[in-house]
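Revision sheet: structure tokens.
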Amino acid sequence: MNLAFVESPVQLLNVLEWAHARPGARLAGVPGQPTGPAGTTRLPVADLTVVVLSPTDPMSRGQLRRMAELARDEGFTVRWQEARGGAGAPLKTVRELAPMLHRAERIVIGDPFSRYVQMLLTLFGGKDLTVVDDGTATMEFVAQLARGEKLVRWHRRGRRGPRELVLAPVTFLARRRLTPSRGRDVEVFTSMPVEPPPGVTLTPNRFAWTRSRFGPPKITRGADLVGTSLVETGVVDPDQYVEAVAALARTHGATRYFAHRRESSDKLHRLAVETGLEIVRPDLPLELIARRGPIGGTVLSFPSTVVHTLPLALVGTGIRVAVCDIAPEWLRDTASPRAQGFLAGVTGTARDVQRLPAPA
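Predicted:
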């Protein structure tokens, strides 16, 4: 049995992509194959169960519920777990999932930095393991794994508070579980440009499932702008961000702003008032929204996951993806010392995108 743990809509999307890319996977539209609702072709990965470790923020929950519907339409079992519903929720979750974890041959995860996932790995290690993308954090995870470093998110300053000290043994053990060993295979399924350490299998994510199920999109005139949560994570100054969005909209004729699910309502309201952009809160990950359309002929973004994923999802459509650099003066004092270099790396390694200088 394959058992996947997801905590975000993008993770669930990439679990579906991983299933679609498995050897022997049946392609959509082949006569005689079993189909799900609305004629969709069921994927053939045996006994894949997806466990949604539900987050608390409404936007993520809404998108996850929509993604869960798509997964069920593909023939997979999806279990919605209220893993954060109170002080006793983690223990209850572990107790309820224990039989499935014991039976699983392979565990698929989307966020190796997640304390929740790390806890599950320490309790039920020794399984074959696949890590699918949860955004650009995959780049940092693979680099830290190759260097033998502890797992720390790139935007954290590295201060070790009481909680981090208590959880340090969990992180240490989880990192061992994420390292391949005799009898345990570790795979990274990714669309990011990474160099895996010895023993780790790298499988490219080409968004074949997305392209087979959605589109081709209707393309509109002008441009659309993709939002980012760099303000919310304490990396970019909010005033600088609003000014940059306004400048990009003016220069490229953008009319819509696709909000990141973690962007605050206050910031989005300010963007609408000060830039005149129509704020769109997508109900699915942007790769599916863009592929479904309508979408602008140019998609503008700051350094983020979409500068790597959208060119793959939109290949052959003629849509141009452009990425705007983050100027050093935009960074807040709270930003990690690694932030500028990491963001530059996200932009510099993106393929099939146009580079834009930071607005003056």
